[in-house]
Amino acid sequence: MIKTNDFIELNFTAKVKDNNRVFDTTVKKVAEENHFHDHDYKPIIVCVGKNDVINGLDEQLVGKETKKYTLEIKAEDAFGKKRHDLIKLIPTSLFIKQNIKPAPGLQVNLNNIIGTIKSVSGGRTIVDFNHPLAGKDLIYDIEILRIVTDTEEKANSILSQVTDKCEILIKENKLEITSNIKEKTQKKLGEEIKSRIPEIKEVEFVKLGNTT
Question: Does 100 lie in the same domain as 42?
Fold first, then answer.
């Protein structure tokens, strides 16, 4: 039975409940059927209870076994309820100045916040800054493949969320990471690794290409 802080390998396919539209998956066949080409589609390793997946799914993993499940995730436990204060009326002229022709459905970036244009009327453009799945109940078809016990696999699963270029070496209870991870990220990442993997007591970062 799966507990908080367990590392597990799983496959999932995520759908919007009201129309059964697939919006994410780890299964290559499902990805091909839905014309997804963003990345490699393969099982993922997550640490339960650490928000590696959306909150509603994370909570429901506790107590499960290594088999298939279909889980319903309420909107408030997924991408949140739709907030009306995040729907903004913006002068169309602001888009014109940036050489953007506003049109319904177009995604725009304003002040580093992504929004979707809902309508354009004269000199006014309505932009929704809610997550596209806000207010939606979701269905997750999951298969828990195994509980991961190997320390190296655990460490790699955490590092893969930050970089795809690193090498690790474990000596007793010390983890050495060779990478180009920025220094300001290293301390926080090291503490996170030690928190999730108690058998690792020390984390050292070595710059990629450094032979010393």
Answer: no
Same domain, 123 and 58: no
Q: What pTM did the predictor assign? A: 0.83
Nearest to 127 by CA among 157, 87, 156: 87
The CA distances from residue 183 to 101, 177, 187, 202, in Å, are: 40, 12, 7, 16
Torsion sign over Cα 159, 162, 168, 173: negative
**Tell me, what CATH number does 194's domain have?**
3.30.70.2210
Range of the domain at 57: 1-79+136-149
Q: What is the mean pLDDT of residues 48-65?
A: 96
58-73 pLDDT, tens per residue?
A: 999 999 999 999 999 9
